Amino acid sequence: MSPTSPHRADGMSSKYDVLVIGGGNAALCAAISARRAGASVLVLEGAPKFYRGGNTRHTRNMRCAHDAATEILTGPYTEEEFREDLLRVTGGQTDEVLARHMIRESKDILNWIVEQGVRWQPSLGGTLSLGRTNSFFLGGGRAMLNALYLTAERLGVEVEYDAEVTDLVIEHGMFLAARLKRPIKGETEVRATSLVAAAGGFEANIEWLKQYWGEVADNFLIRGTPYNRGSILKMLLDKGVQEVGDPTQCHAVAIDARAPKFDGGIITRHDSVVFGIVVNKHAQRFYDEGEDIWPKRYAIWGRLVAAQPDQIAYIIFDSTVVTSFMPTLFPPIAGQTVAELAGKLELDPAALEKTITEFNAAVRFGTFDHTILDDCRTEGITPPKTHWARRIETPPYLAYPVRPGITFTYLGTRVNKEARMLMKGGKPSGNMFAAGEIMAGNVLGKGYAAGMGMTIGSVFGRIAGREAAKHARN
Amino acid sequence: MHGTRILDEADRLMTVCNSCRYCEGLCAVFPAMEMRRAFSDGDLNYLANLCHGCGACYVDCQFSPPHEFNVNVPKTLAVARAESYAAYAWPQALSGAFARNGLVISVIAALSMAAFILGFAALNGTSVLFGVHTGPGAFYRLMPHNVMAALFSAAFLYAILALAMSVRAFWRDIGAPIGGRADGGSIFQAIRDAGELRYLHGGGVGCYNEDDKPTDRRKLYHHLTFYGFLFCFAATAVATLYHYLFGREAPYPWWDLPVALGTLGGIGLIIGPVGLFMAKMRRDPALLDESRYGMDVGFIAMLFLTGATGMLLLVLRETGAMGPLLALHLGAVFALFITMPYGKFVHGIYRFAALVRYAQERRTAA
Predict the structure, then answer these.
(1) Which runs of consecutive H residues, i.e. helices, occur in A37-159?
(2) What is the C-alpha to C-alpha distance for residues B29 and B97, in angstroms, rounded to an integer?
(3) Helices marked H in B242-345
């Protein structure tokens, strides 16, 4: 496997077989797969080396189908079950053909990704409910990235950091070149036979979010990289690539309101919703906190909070449940009385007392078990809490303030099963492929289930790299 | 808040890590952390001594600097670990020896070696010191066996006493929550974990030292050093038995057990410390507790000196250099013994105790 040299002897211009824009899981899987297929590959990562890899740095697992338990997975997770989970969380808003293809391919990814140097570990303490379905990266997402970069470099993939692309030259659906903000090897333009766009969504571009969300987007926190500003996505859509997905749809969870604006990552999340109640700034409940098992519902709370006034909410619980969920980065705010807690949260004390009193009165006792849909529920209040309802009555009373935490956006480039971008009008591009967040909207019309972003990245990254190399060779 | 600034920082980091847990599979520190939701001084000193400094969690961490959360577990725990040595030292009056440890160790070593040279010369005169002595009892023409045995037994017993008292304080501090004595199973598990340096492997991929590539060879060098030390110790023990049980006096022929063991150990004690020193020089400053450079290098140098003077003595024992080399070797060993409780040597003792405690906790949790 000796690919053609990307540099002409006269040094006039360089041309790679495959140019990969982006530096995360999808980009590296594409680069490795293209390189293993014999292509010369250049990876342009817009971020500096420490921040390489976009949101992959913050991930911890991947959801892949498997027919039997493995060393680290506790039982089988069939293609059919995966498909049902996907249909449920998206409410059917998915490209069924692509989704089926992805789920089938995900089976082999479990092995393929290990061959690229990534190592697994059993599901982490406090995440037992994912132990059957999701494979966790030993050391987390940055460790996974480090392994992929080592493999890519060992194979001869060239990687450039701080390599921001300012423009794409595309003619008649064919990629010709990428223009660079900072010259690389004296060149301000990189030419390549095929393009793989794996540069993420636009979640860190608040101005762009505001186009769809209005001013409320100012109250969003961005859980991951500040570098996913969607510039490549915008260029592609502006140059004739067909878009997919609702621009307001994204993977969003409720995270601690005290988290930094960007890059707070996993440790700002809260898993305590099912153990208490959630109120808005008027101290009113607004959704059934016990609707379903937490890993199946955590991803709706970002949007729910986004719909509340000032995009803020408070998870309220009492001292009896503090050890029921994982320890948190930010400590809960505490009050010896409901009124004292309300004062600290700047809520109306009378309103919060009324909400909690009414909630407590509505609780019907049962046998508490947070791992199943138990029979602890409320009666006679709206909204109800249909499971895990217990009185909040043992001081100190505790609260976490939460805001919408945007993980990644779903507006993207439409692709087919080859990860090939489709142009407006439906014609497949001659040489442009996409993988990862930038095309996640093909599979995720809305909603989210843990680990799917990485599945989309690895599966379509691997396919995109292979197809891009195939095109370059022909 | 905690007793020291570094423990405050360790507490902050363990709070961050406990809400993340991505590194759970890398070593023993993170599973031990997960058994707690709050951290006492003793807990943090326990975690600090459980850490082997493989560096994997730093390279793998999405929050390591320049991220604003500034998570650097290996360095923070290295500083906390070193401070814990002083905190538990017995007698406490000597805990200051850790502050400028490199200087303390080198001064004691120099004085000790000089004392042996001058002592030999004063006792026997320079003609005996530089004379050629061969055959059984050759060494004891310079220093009577009983004097040698008494001196080194005293130094060794003092070291044992001071170490035992120190580790007792440590054990109490870290053992209190669950308490009790160590059971045989946990001790056996800890011997295995320490013997193979189970947690100096970056979770399986290898350790990190100079950069983000797992190419570190410290595990190998540490094995050479540690087992070299054990072989040398075994050589001395066998020779003592020979002397008292069989009346066979040193020096022994090269093929005999004490010399064979000592030679193997000596080679380990030369290559191992050199490798560890080179690794230390190349280590990424982000991972290094620079203020303890002297302590680390002082101990490495003492081990090297012990191995090197021993090997030289073996090679040149039938020449006129034997007398001065014997003095240097005995001086090095003497200094090594008496400084053991107040230098880097203690890392092995505390880490072993932490591993016993960890094995115990795992059994309790299982």
Answers:
(1) 79-90, 96-115, 141-155
(2) 28
(3) 257-282, 293-315, 322-339
What residues 267-326 of chain B have any CB closer than 8 A to a CB of chain A? none
CB contact at 8 A, B351 and B194? yes
B244 touches chain A (CB under 8 A): no
Confirm if A109 and A465 have CB atoms less than 8 A apart. no
- Residue B146: left (phi > 0), alpha (psi -120 to 50), or beta? alpha
Place of tokens 């040398």: B232
Mean pLDDT of A338-360: 98
* A285 shares contact with chain B (CB less than 8 Å): no
B189, B28 Cβ separation under 8 angstroms: no
Under an 8 A CB cutoff, do B19 and A121 touch?
A: no
CA A412 to each of CA A220, A230, A231, A233: distance values in angstroms, whole numbers, following the listed order: 20, 9, 12, 7
Our CA-based measurement puts residue B177 at a distance from the nearest CA of chain A, in whole angstroms, of 18
For Cα atoms A94, A100, A103, give the angle at the middle one, nearest 5 degrees: 105
- Residue B244 three-state SS: helix
pLDDT, tens only, A117-165: 999 999 988 776 899 999 999 999 999 999 999 999 999 999 999 999 9
Confidence check: pLDDT of B125 > 90: no
Report how far residue B345's alpha carbon sits from residue B349's, in angstroms, rounded to the nearest whole number.
8
For B142-197, write each residue's pLDDT tens digit: 899 989 999 999 999 999 999 999 999 999 999 854 556 678 999 999 999 999 99
Residues 6+ apart with CB under 8 A from B160: none
Q: B266-287, pLDDT tens digit by residue?
A: 999 999 999 999 999 999 999 9
Contacts for B219 with CB less than 8 Å, ≥ 6 apart = B197, B200, B201, B207
Q: Which residue of A has its CA nearest to B30?
A: A125
Q: How far is B195 from chain A (nearest CA, A)?
A: 24
Chain B segment 16-45 residues within 8 A of A by beta carbon are 16, 18-26, 31, 34, 37
